């Protein structure tokens, strides 16, 4: 059996193109499973997974939890907002306490970039990064690329523009790495204040004009403006942002071709995209959600196959 080159999924930058293809092939199999009348398989029946969310996240947490239950894993949910972390316990102590319950795998979202890498060095469990600060969100990037492959047949050679708040987005960075590894061309589009300084150093084009970006691309991935990560104002008003960088149906219909519209969610309807775009047949937003479960099942399954059994 083919296996992943890594024991953890910490970020797209740590995995190979072959790893991504293996995850996609495995997800194809699980996608077929979750469309059956009996949606469970016993693949991870002896594996215990802890979901550690140090930041709120409804969709990612539910998607992971569903993936774990579809694979018949035992699941522990830990929300740090109401935990001993508030009482000053360190990350390693928290995780070691959880691991002493014989947990095999930790799915972690954390506000600090690199938290997963740090943890992987210090604890004896397989770590899946479910988002670390504004750094990486590898499973989101995998499900996005998987959704493009499903819709357009392949990712290689496709032109993808990521629109919006690139600066605060872990989704953008992971997506850029995944798309480049799979042979897509990537551009970003958004207000200059929301583009990171390093963006031109990682082989990504920058397009300031939304219409030009949409005429160039096959796929537009529309990001949410992350108001909760902004300590200063990065653009004058939401209305002005929408006028310059929001996509509505009239704009889509005026392009010389039909493009695919994606969104990692949650959508600010009427800001980055209007409802008639979100609900149109060009949008694959609900496919992304469904594919997220299959892709996360694939990641958990492939990582679990590398776990050594516990010594009792």
From TrEMBL:
Domain Aspartate/ornithine carbamoyltransferase carbamoyl-P binding: 8-150
EC number: 2.1.3.2
Binding locations of carbamoyl phosphate: 59-60, 109, 137, 140, 265-266
Top-level taxon of the source organism: Bacteria
Chain sites annotated for binding L-aspartate: 87, 170, 224
Reactions catalysed according to its record: carbamoyl phosphate + L-aspartate = N-carbamoyl-L-aspartate + phosphate + H(+)
Keyword Iron: no
Family listed: Belongs to the aspartate/ornithine carbamoyltransferase superfamily. ATCase family.
Name under which the protein is recorded: Aspartate carbamoyltransferase
Source species: Ulvibacter antarcticus
């Amino acid at each position: 059996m083919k296996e992943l080159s890594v024991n953890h999924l910490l970020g797209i930058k740590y995995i190979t193109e072959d790893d991504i293809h293996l995850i996609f092939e495995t997800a194809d199999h699980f996608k077929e499973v979750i469309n059956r009348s009996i949606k469970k398989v016993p693949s991870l029946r002896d594996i215990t997974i802890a979901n550690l969310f140090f930041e709120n996240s409804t969709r990612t947490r539910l998607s992971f939890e569903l993936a774990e239950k579809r694979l018949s894993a035992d699941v522990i949910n830990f929300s740090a907002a109401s935990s001993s972390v508030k009482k000053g316990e360190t990350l390693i102590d928290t995780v070691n306490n959880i691991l002493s319950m014989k947990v095999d795998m930790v799915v972690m979202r954390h506000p600090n970039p690199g938290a997963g890498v740090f943890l992987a060095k210090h604890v004896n469990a397989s770590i899946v990064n479910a988002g670390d600060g504004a750094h990486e969100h590898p499973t989101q990037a995998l499900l996005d690329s998987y959704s493009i492959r499903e819709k357009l047949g392949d990712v290689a050679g496709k032109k993808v523009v990521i629109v919006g708040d690139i600066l605060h987005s872990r989704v953008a960075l992971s997506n850029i790495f995944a798309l480049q590894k799979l042979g897509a061309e990537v551009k970003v589009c958004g207000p200059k204040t929301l583009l990171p300084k390093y963006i031109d150093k990682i082989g990504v084009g920058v397009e300031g004009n939304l219409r030009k970006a949409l005429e160039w691309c096959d796929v537009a991935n529309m990001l949410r403006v992350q108001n909760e990560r902004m300590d200063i104002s990065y653009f004058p008003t939401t209305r002005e942002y929408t006028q310059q960088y929001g996509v509505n149906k009239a704009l889509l219909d005026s392009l010389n071709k039909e493009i695919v519209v994606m969104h990692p969610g949650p959508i600010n309807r009427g800001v980055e995209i209007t409802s008639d775009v979100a609900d149109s047949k060009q949008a694959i937003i609900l496919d992304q959600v469904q594919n997220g479960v299959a892709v996360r099942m694939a990641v958990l399954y492939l990582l679990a196959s590398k776990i050594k059994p516990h010594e009792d």
